[in-house]
Design goal:
This protein has 331 residues and is mainly alpha-helical. It is built from 15 helices and 2 strands. The protein has a two-stranded antiparallel ribbon with strand order 1-2.
Length: 331
């Protein structure tokens, strides 16, 4: 896997560094701080893989538009993280102090806007910009709608499971689906047959749903640090995720307790958190959430049946499997 994808990811990193180079010293200092963190780069990886999936000559280092598209989605994602950290009041991201903590909120917000502008500048220089720009523009719009929906539904103990999945779609899975579609658009085989183009989006969508459910499970139950950030972050700011939705659906007692705390804008005590965790295990909420993540992963794997049997497809298979592997021992 590494020998197929790492040279292309290195090209993406170099392009991002070149694109963000600025003569404005304060801006460059923030960029350097931001780039010192090392994320998983799932989104550019999906662009590169789906772009290479139908190339019978194997993944190419020469497809400049594919590298530009991969770099642009990483910039969009990073911008969303910068803005999320401001909204959440987060102190750390990827092991480093967040921008708004090291500098200030205004500077961090402006850098997030700068990253978005550079992302769309890259896309505008692609041969198929007339297709890529509306695709990614729509995706960013949906990201903003998802964040707004999550804020609106915060501290709402009546949120339904369907509303939870809708929020996941807007915040996570539609962007991964757009990344997969963008890779197909940037590939040498474009235009793809409808069924294969649809399968790319379905892979990204279901991978995103599985990924978000797993993250929410880890936020609720993880004790090992595999999430890469403190646990209970979402819960502490009133985000009701799937394990808690399942518990509150089954337990009127815990729903009343949480509603009382939220009504008074109080802080949930560590003791109550442990009670919620234990009760959610006992009532089957944890098992149900794991099962839904597994179902989403299996749908992602099924969509690969429409793809050619190549080493690239094998990598995409392993990526989907790795999502739920993160919670294999959490039961």
């Amino acid at each position: 896997m590494d020998h197929l994808i790492n040279p292309r990811l290195a090209q993406v990193d170099l392009l991002i560094q070149k694109t963000l180079r600025s003569p404005t010293r304060p801006l460059q200092e923030m960029v350097d701080h931001l780039l010192s963190g090392n994320g998983k780069k799932i989104r550019p990886m999906l662009v590169l893989l789906t772009g290479a999936l139908f190339d019978l000559n194997g993944p190419s280092l020469q497809n400049a538009d594919l590298i530009k598209t991969a770099a642009s989605v990483e910039l969009i994602h990073t911008a969303s993280l910068v803005h999320d950290d401001i909204i959440d009041g987060a102190d750390q991201r990827r092991g480093s102090v967040t921008l708004h903590k090291r500098w200030d909120t205004l500077s961090a917000a402006l850098l997030g806007d700068y990253l978005l502008s550079m992302a769309f500048k890259l896309l505008s220089n692609c041969e198929r910009s007339s297709i890529l720009l509306p695709l990614m523009g729509r995706s960013v719009e949906l990201l903003c709608r998802g964040e707004t929906m999550q804020i609106d539904k915060s501290y709402d103990c009546s949120i339904s499971e369907q509303e939870y999945y809708r929020c996941n779609y807007l915040k996570t899975s539609q962007f991964l689906a757009a990344c997969c579609e963008a890779g197909g658009i940037s590939s040498v085989a474009f235009p793809l047959p409808f069924e294969q183009s649809k399968a790319l989006r379905e892979y990204g969508f279901n991978l995103g749903q599985a990924f978000q459910i797993v993250d929410d499970i880890l936020d609720f139950y993880d004790q090992t640090g595999r999430l890469g950030k403190p646990v209970w972050v979402d819960f502490n700011r009133g985000v009701i995720t799937l394990p808690l939705i399942c518990l509150l659906r089954k337990s009127g007692r815990f729903r009343a307790l949480l509603e009382a705390v939220y009504c008074c804008q109080g802080v949930v005590s560590p003791h109550l958190k442990e009670q919620l965790k234990q009760a959610s295990r006992e009532c089957g909420a944890l098992e149900y959430s794991i099962r839904r993540a597994e179902q989403a992963k299996l749908l992602a794997l099924r969509s690969l049946n429409a793809m050619p049997q190549t080493p690239v497809r094998s990598i995409m298979f392993k990526i989907a499997e790795s999502v739920t592997a993160r919670i294999a021992d959490i039961r």
